[in-house]
Specification:
Number of strands of chain B: 7
Number of helices of chain A: 12
Number of helices of chain B: 11
Order of helices and strands of chain A: EHEHEHEHHEHEHEEEEHEEHEHEHH
Shape of chain A: globular
Helix content of chain A: 25-40%
CATH topology of chain B: Rossmann fold
Largest sheet of chain A: 7 strands, mixed
Distance between the termini of chain B: 57 Å
Distance between the termini of chain A: 44 Å
Largest sheet of chain B: 5 strands, parallel
CATH architecture of chain B: 3-Layer(aba) Sandwich
CATH superfamily of the largest domain in chain A: Thiamin diphosphate (ThDP)-binding fold, Pyr/PP domains
Helix content of chain B: 40-55%
Largest interface: A-B, 49 and 49 residues
Shape of chain B: globular
Structural class of chain A: alpha/beta
Radius of gyration of chain B: 19 Å
Oligomer: heterodimer
CATH architecture of the largest domain in chain A: 3-Layer(aba) Sandwich
Number of domains of chain B: 1
CATH superfamily of chain B: Thiamin diphosphate (ThDP)-binding fold, Pyr/PP domains
Strand content of chain B: 5-15%
Structural class of chain B: alpha/beta
Number of strands of chain A: 14
Strand order of the largest sheet of chain A: 3-2-4-5-7-6-12
Number of domains of chain A: 2
Strand content of chain A: 15-25%
């Protein structure tokens, strides 16, 4: 396999590009995914104005044409709902919901239509839909452009949820999501777009429902998601200097959840810390703690701990936003509090 | 109506009669306490579903509403499976998991009744988009009520369908009341048809009790959609004979109003017209009436004799695959 260094952004772009080449029923739709629709000096010359608000989908309209890369009006209900039914009738749409916080304006189409349709129809329909959406604080974008909210979608029967942390995982997981017969929400942390990593040129699929042990360790299990994987790994290096050997598990998919990976690790380390950038109530963090409490209680040498965002919206002021995001120091001190 | 073949005329009558008989019997079953949940009945609005679906094949799509039984029957969904679905039986169209409000048969292009008012508009854009991207001539009819006309989803969907020139018919079924609230109160425009102007598509107001009028206007809209010229809006004014849901006391309607509706019954009006012109015989219509009654009684028997789903069925059909 030939690999080269790609950014997280390029890895996502490549996953979409390869799948669109492989399968003519894959289409991409969203606000400004190409940009400049119908403008003579843009579309008229085969160009794109934006290629996505942060450039993730650049070049796709050029290669595949605007019949398959569709700029939408700012009508999330209409185009996300259209993607649901297009999926149910023969296409494999990738709909981009620019920021996850915008789910409020199209939740019915995601929740009551997309996620429930197969069940309500007695299994007589499939909805091979991907909704790509940006998450995460740290962009100074405040309350309505900075949330994570993946726990909201993980709660929904019928929906699969994926959060990648590296360029390699992003490409392989997105390819799986596009090929998956069920609706998948694919969460992209905007502060990871410029991070880099080795990515194979070929297409490859990372199966949904398989967590990844990003660091082996024997004293404590840190279960984490998305950008927090990098924070946890940094914390693990600091802890190693104090003789604490932390295992870092990147969940990668939240639904389906690789509960075995979590339980196996806790049975080995006997301690659990969950690090999650999402709000804490009814969250992935509480879900993982519940899982371990119910099924590995006797293996625990201390109570499970959570390092999460507070139960607040994301604030604007830089010092407040930095306080909001779980920090490496908080992870280190939390681990130390339970590892004797 | 001269250009409608006799075969088609008989199909139109048979479908309208089947819907009426189905709904009347469902009303009885509900009153007798034999149906779980609740039902929204389509009796009185038959001419709309049938007049539109007369132009569609199994390959075309429809999206529907909470009042979806008539749309199903007009689109050719099996009435035995429908009746079983309404009873929550394993043999139902959706294996008993959808019920009246989510009854569907995608193999017949029926993309589901919908418990969310205005939920179908975006979905209609989706099946329309599939046809456009794959280059087929399939069209989608999006049935929606006067209540749904006030949902943002319908406005978004009409705008999207128009800018993308999607092969969609927006079929507004204005039965005068959104639940108990009259459209003259809940709608700011004088008609829903005129809203088409805002989305640069043809908009026509039709007598939704006259199946010939609906058939003619829908025919033009379907042809336009198949030619790739984009969506149309048809507002059909009609009446629902039963309440918003079965059991609704309908305090909002007067006796005079109801008598006025009944005098314009779509099935009786069809009969009068075809008999006056000698297009079909009284005997042919009577035979269809008898057949419809028998088919519906068979459907009830089929449902009664069908088992409930096994309890494990609760856990299946959420995903195609879930490790």
């Amino acid at each position: 396999m030939t690999t080269r260094t790609l950014t997280f952004r390029e890895a996502i772009n490549e996953a979409i590009r390869l799948e669109m080449r492989r399968d003519p029923t894959v289409i991409l739709m969203g606000e400004d995914v190409a940009g400049g629709a119908t403008i003579p000096h843009i579309e008229g010359k085969g160009e794109e104005a934006w290629g996505g608000v942060l450039g993730v989908t650049k070049g796709l309209a050029k290669e595949f044409g605007r019949q398959r890369v569709l700029d939408t009006p700012i009508s999330e209900s209409a185009y996300v709902g259209a993607a649901v039914a297009a999926a149910a009738t023969g296409l494999r749409p990738i709909a981009e919901l620019m920021f996850v916080d915008f789910f409020g304006v199209c939740m019915d189409q995601i929740f009551n239509q997309g996620a429930k349709l197969r069940y309500m129809f007695g299994g007589k329909a499939q909805v091979p839909l991907v909704v790509r959406t940006m998450i995460g604080a740290g962009f100074r974008a405040a309350g309505q452009h900075s949330g994570c909210h993946y726990s909201v979608f993980t709660h929904m029967p019928g929906m699969k949820t994926v959060v990648a942390s590296t360029p390699y995982d992003a490409k392989g997981l997105l390819i799986s999501a596009i090929r998956d017969p069920d609706p998948v929400i694919f969460f992209e942390h905007k502060l990871l777009y410029d991070t880099t990593g080795e990515v194979p040129e070929e297409d490859y699929a990372i199966p949904l429902g398989v967590a990844d042990v990003k660091r082996q360790g024997k004293n404590v299990t840190i279960v984490t998601i998305g950008r927090m994987v990098h924070f946890a790994l940094e914390a693990a290096e600091k802890l190693a200097q104090d003789g604490i050997d932390a295992e870092v598990i990147d969940l990668r998919t939240l639904s389906p959840l690789d509960d075995k990976a979590v339980l196996d690790s806790v049975k080995k380390t006997h301690r659990l810390v969950v690090v999650d950038e999402d709000n804490p109530r009814c969250s992935m963090a509480t879900d993982i703690v519940a899982l371990v409490s119910e099924r590995a209680f006797d293996y625990l040498d201390s109570s499970p701990r959570m390092v999460t965002a507070p139960h607040t919206p994301v604030p604007f002021s830089p010092p407040l936003e930095d306080y909001y995001v779980p920090s490496v120091d908080k992870i280190v001190s939390t681990v130390k509090s339970i590892v004797a | 109506m001269a250009e409608i073949s006799k075969e088609k005329l008989l199909w139109i009558y048979e479908r309208m009669r089947l819907i009426r008989t189905f709904e009347d019997r469902v009303a009885d079953l509900f009153t007798e306490g034999k149906l779980p949940g609740f039902v929204h009945l389509y009796a009185g609005e038959e001419a709309i579903a049938v007049g539109v679906c007369a132009h569609l094949t199994d390959r075309d799509f429809i999206t529907s509403t909470h009042r979806g039984h008539g749309h199903c029957i007009a689109k050719g969904v099996d009435v035995k499976e429908m009746m079983a679905e309404l009873h929550g039986k394993a043999t139902g169209s959706c294996k008993g998991k959808g019920g009246s409000m989510h009854i569907a048969d995608v193999n017949k292009g029926m993309m589901g009744a919908n418990g969310i008012v205005g939920g179908g508009g975006p979905l209609a854009c989706g099946s329309g988009l599939t046809a456009k991207v794959l280059g087929t001539d399939q069209v989608t009819a999006c049935f929606y009520g006067d209540g749904a006309a006030e949902q943002g989803t319908m406005h978004e969907a009409m705008n999207l369908a128009s800018i993308w020139k999607l092969p969609v018919l927006f079929v507004c079924e204005n039965n005068l009341y959104a639940e108990s609230t009259p459209y003259t109160y809940h709608g700011a425009s004088k008609s829903f048809a005129e809203r088409a102007t805002a989305y640069d598509m043809p908009g026509v107001l039709v007598d939704g009790t006259d199946v010939f009028a609906v058939y003619e206007v829908a025919g033009e809209a379907v042809a336009r959609a198949r030619r790739g010229e984009g969506p149309s809006l048809i507002e059909n004014r009609a009446f629902r004979y039963y309440g918003h849901f079965q059991g609704d006391g309908m305090a909002y309607r007067t006796e005079d109003e109801v008598a006025g509706y009944r005098a314009r019954d779509p099935i009786e009006s069809f009969k009068r017209q075809v008999l006056a012109r000698g297009l079909v015989s009284q005997a042919e219509l009577a035979e269809i009436d008898t057949q419809a009654a028998r088919v519906i009684e068979e459907a009830i028997r089929f449902s009664d004799e069908s088992p409930y789903p096994a309890l494990e069925e609760c856990l299946t059909d959420v995903y195609v695959s879930y490790p």
